[in-house]
Every structure is written in C-alpha cells, then in structure tokens.
Amino acid sequence: AHPDEVAHAVEFLTHAGFVRGAVIPVDGGAGLGH
Predict the structure, then answer these.
(1) Which pTM does this prediction carry?
(2) From the centroid of its chain, how far is CA 28?
(3) Alpha-helix runs per DSSP H in 1-34
(4) Vertex 28, ends 15 and 21: CA angle to 5°?
C-alpha cells in the first residue's frame, strides 16, 4: 500500500463516529483479485 492509502484509512477512522471490530484492508486493491 502507498502512504496516501494508509493516510486515507487513518483519516476515515479518526472521523468515523462508530467503528467496532472492523478489519480494514489497506492493500492497494490486491484483495480484489484483479
């Protein structure tokens, strides 16, 4: 993952009102199977 992708995930977590037990893959889309 690129640093900006990680930054977007962290930004989401800091602004989310409620996140619990979530697994957020930051893998540059590799998990999509393309």
Answers:
(1) 0.58
(2) 9
(3) 3-15
(4) 45
